[in-house]
Specification:
- The chain is α/β, with parallel strands linked by helices.
- It folds into 2 domains: 367 residues, Glycosidases (TIM Barrel, Alpha-Beta Barrel), CATH 3.20.20; 74 residues, Immunoglobulin-like.
- The protein is built from 16 helices and 18 strands.
- Strands 11-10-9-5-2-1-12 form a 7-stranded parallel β-sheet. Strands 13, 14, 15, 16, 17 and 18 form a 6-stranded antiparallel β-sheet that branches.
- The protein is globular, with a radius of gyration of 23 Å.
- Its EC number is 3.2.1.10.
- InterPro entries: GH, GH13_cat_dom, O16G_dom_2.
- Belongs to the glycosyl hydrolase 13 family.
Length: 527
């Protein structure tokens, strides 16, 4: 049974733990380290892609939606994983990539050949009279969103790489195939699904040209600002309203008790988008890139909380499998910064997502071009967005070869400081790992993530949350400054129930504290 605001741990199997010596993580490796994940008090584990894939885009280019890639193991291994997760009192979530497939997928090959059944399962269009693509749409990777196929003598649409053709999600056969895919994994015990790029599902079938981006739109586009994708206002290739309604199909296919999480990955991130995707009969939650982008801006975070206005539909997160690690991107890479964001994740209202390694304060690794495999990073090298960095494998044991991740050669180079390893932090009471455990235990016990009332105040360097929950009043104060301490007017008897960087009078840089029943003037001092 899913709680109202779950804490979800996202792991990337290829980089989590390797039991075969291949240099790539596997499902047995995940099983081997489940006690570590369980110790964090999470409600669910989101297992990243493990399906058959040529790995052109990190496994999000799927060639078979119902088979485990042999590099990760077998379906029996997956069944064992589900059982072991359930035995530890956690729930299982897996990815579902419905927007596109790999070009190597049998469905796409049949569509190229004009197979009567699958001919229209993908998005095909004739060229203009001069042979050019049907319109001016640009893919999110910055190249034209159309690729010519000489066998079919048509262009096919792709919102990402040319080897990731878009499915025609309005096609009845496609709907049937995905309903059956969800049923396949539900029958194996899965408790929830994370839907990749759910806001990119549908487009205007008349396919007019996108207009140039207005400044207000340009400011909300994610990714490098030198990506030509940002130059367009994506009003025709991303029909978010139709896409939100489409998720009603997924709810019917899954049933009411299965947790459905969507990723909003469009040019225009907003609370309104998430709210439209999470109306009754749709998704349970839909996360946007807003927290990742403005996670070090207390005023921007306050504005998000006020816009949500009690509809806590968008989970909080700061790092993912394709976003640089947040203590480097939003902070200074310090342990203090890592503890600060653990506190923030523990108190914000709504669901929360952790990514593997953030509990160890892993910084963003530096990779040379020759070490990089991610196509987006390579495309914009040396100004790469850093998608590959968070996928550098987990460091488990400080004195073991490759930090205990593998006995072979890791698929990405590992150059961690030894004090980042799990074994080094296990026995240290003041380690980031043990602080995460305390913070997430506090989150589960007190449940400030489901407030009865919330008041937020913020300045350019601080934020306070006054939370009423279960008949008790709570005060959270967060110092976002990297250099300045924040005086907090408390009595000597006022002891925080959760704190990092509190010296009894002030919050030090990257300090955060939670008090029960503190005077309101404390919160006002942050405004």
């Amino acid at each position: 049974m899913w709680p109202d605001a779950p804490l979800i741990y996202n792991l990337y199997p290829r980089s989590f733990n390797d039991t075969s010596g291949s240099g790539e993580g596997d499902l047995k490796g995940v099983i081997e380290k489940l006690d570590h994940v369980a110790s964090l008090g999470v409600d669910a584990i989101w297992v990243g892609p493990f399906f058959i894939s040529p790995l052109a885009d990190g496994g999000y280019d799927i060639a078979d939606h119902r088979t485990v890639d042999p590099r990760y193991g077998t379906l029996d291994d997956f069944d064992d994983l589900v059982r072991e997760i359930h035995d530890r009192g956690m729930l299982v979530m897996i990815d579902q990539v419905f927007n596109h497939t790999s070009a190597e997928h049998a469905w796409f090959q049949a569509s190229i050949d004009g197979d009567e059944e699958k001919a229209d399962c993908y998005v095909w269009r004739d060229p203009k009279p001069d042979g050019t693509p049907p319109n001016n749409w640009i893919s999110q990777f910055g190249m034209p969103a159309w690729t010519w196929n000489h066998r079919r003598q048509q262009y096919y649409h792709h919102q990402f790489l040319s080897c990731q053709p878009n499915l025609n999600l309005r096609n009845d056969l496609v709907k049937t195939m995905f309903r059956e895919t969800m049923e396949f994994w539900l029958d194996r015990g899965v408790d929830g699904f994370r839907f990749d790029v759910v806001t990119a599902y549908l487009f205007d079938e008349d396919m007019p040209d996108n207009p140039p981006a207005r400044p207000v739109v340009l400011s909300k586009v994610t990714g490098p600002n030198h990506n030509p994708y940002s130059y367009q206002d994506h009003v025709y290739d991303l029909l978010q309203g139709d896409g939100a309604a489409y998720t009603e199909n997924m709810r019917k296919w899954a049933g009411k008790d299965i947790y459905l999480l969507g990723e909003s990955n469009t040019g225009n991130q907003s609370v309104e988008v998430a709210q439209s995707f999470t109306r009754e009969g749709r998704l349970d939650a839909c996360y946007t890139t807003d927290p990742m982008q403005v996670g070090n801006d207390p005023i921007a975070l306050m504005n998000i909380l006020k816009a949500l206005d009690g509809d806590w539909c968008t989970p909080w997160w700061f790092t993912s499998h394709d976003q640089p690690r947040h203590i480097s991107r939003l902070g200074d890479g310090s342990d203090a910064c890592a503890r600060f964001y653990a506190t923030l994740l523990a108190v914000l209202p709504g669901a929360a997502i952790m990514f593997q390694g953030e509990e160890l304060a892993l910084p963003q690794p530096t990779l040379a071009k020759a070490e990089t495999t991610d196509p987006f990073d390579l495309l914009y090298w040396p100004d790469a967005p850093g998608r590959e960095g968070p996928r550098v494998p987990m460091p488990w044991k400080s004195r073991k070869k490759n930090y205990g991740f593998t006995t072979g050669d890791p698929w990405l180079p590992m150059r961690w400081e030894r004090d980042r390893c799990v074994d080094q932090q296990e026995g240290a009471e003041d380690s980031v790992l043990n602080y995460y455990r305390r913070a997430m235990a506090f989150r589960k016990e007190v449940r400030l993530n489901a407030p009865d009332k919330l008041r937020v105040d913020a300045s350019t360097s601080a934020m306070s949350l006054r939370i009423a929950r279960g008949g008790k009043d709570w005060m959270v104060v967060l110092n976002f400054s990297t250099t300045e301490s924040l005086p907090v007017p408390t009595r000597s008897a006022d002891t925080p129930v959760l704190q990092t960087g509190w010296d009894g009078r002030r919050l030090l840089p990257w300090g955060a504290a939670v008090w029960e029943g503190l005077d309101e003037e404390v919160g006002a001092s942050c405004g």
